[in-house]
Fold this sequence. Notes:
- This protein is mainly alpha-helical.
- Helix content is about 35%, strand content about 5%.
- It contains seven helices and six strands; from the N terminus they run αααββββββαααα.
- The chain has helices at about 5-15, 35-50, 50-55, 130-135, 145-155, 160, 175-190; strands at about 65, 70, 85, 90, 100, 110.
- Strands 1-2 form a two-stranded antiparallel ribbon. Strands 3-4 form a two-stranded antiparallel sheet. A two-stranded antiparallel ribbon has the order 5-6.
- A hairpin with a 4-residue loop joins strand 1 and strand 2.
- Helix 2 runs antiparallel to helix 7 and helix 5 runs antiparallel to helix 7 (about 175-190).
- It starts with a helix and ends in a 7-residue tail after the last helix.
Amino acid sequence: MRRWIPALALALATTPVFAQDLSGPEAFEGIKDEKERSAAIFEEMGKVLTHPRCLNCHPVTGGPTQGDDMHPHTPPVVRGEADFGAAGMNCNVCHGTENVALTANPRSIPGHEPWALAPVSMGWQGLGLGAICAQLKDPERNGGRTLEQLYEHNAQDGLVGWGWDPGEGRTPAPGSQELFGKLTRAWIDSGAACPG
């Protein structure tokens, strides 16, 4: 029994813990200072932005990571010139237009059309929320998007939405894309302030 307890403690200590809930914009109405409220809303959005469903495809360097523990992609892949993998080993060699369940175990191969890494300029693995926020607001680093286009991306883009329907073996992002969109709208409407 003594050998089992340390093994269980180690397993629990290395199991990632993610936010399971996501509050809506109304949860921040009590914050009277608009800048504080806006920054608090972004911190709530950060529960999604820092979840492995987002981070795995938003690396700062190298190729994608995978799984809830964000381990290096297997098989090893590189970003490639168009963020779509190397020539002859593009992302769509394995990733189709939808998730594919594996019959041997409760896992799946994720899929969506299109399936690609975020550009390097949009990588945020390892960054704090303030840095992610500043990056998202900067058209030089956010794919040339205005805040309104960022809202549309967060609220309606199918690849973003995949984070809540990631297939077997993956923890979905907290909340829903609809709620994430509402938070993005409230953040922008309150001044798009970044956490300190």
